[in-house]
Amino acid sequence: MASVARSAPYDTDYPSEDVSAATGWIAFAAILLGISGAWNVFDGILAIAKSRVYAPNQTYVFSDLRTWGWIVLILGTLEIVAAVMLFGGSAFARWFGVGAASLNAIGQLMFIPAQPFWALAMFSLDLLVIYALVVYGGRLDEA
Fold it and tell me: pTM for this one?
């Protein structure tokens, strides 16, 4: 049986194309986390200030719009921290990013009464970030 020639100096089960794809997916996830975090910070500030951007007199899972503004602001800050940490390349940063995106996904589903379509779009972004970090993150560790 012919052996497969590897172009990389390390010995892994993944071809070098998978490692470069993994690097791209992780960078993509970090950028999406940063953008999502920035938007959450803006959304949180708008909600805390009771801006007219949000639908008036909505019923939330608990409390009111101002409380959810603080929650979304904190989630956005966590996502920005995770995005910055991901560029360091550690496994802890990857799992912290998964945790931040998961918490934000849950938070966005609970924030649906304020902005339904925007919350669902942010939820979809979080799912894409989780996919990128979980599926392709291990390939960088193997390399």
Answer: 0.78
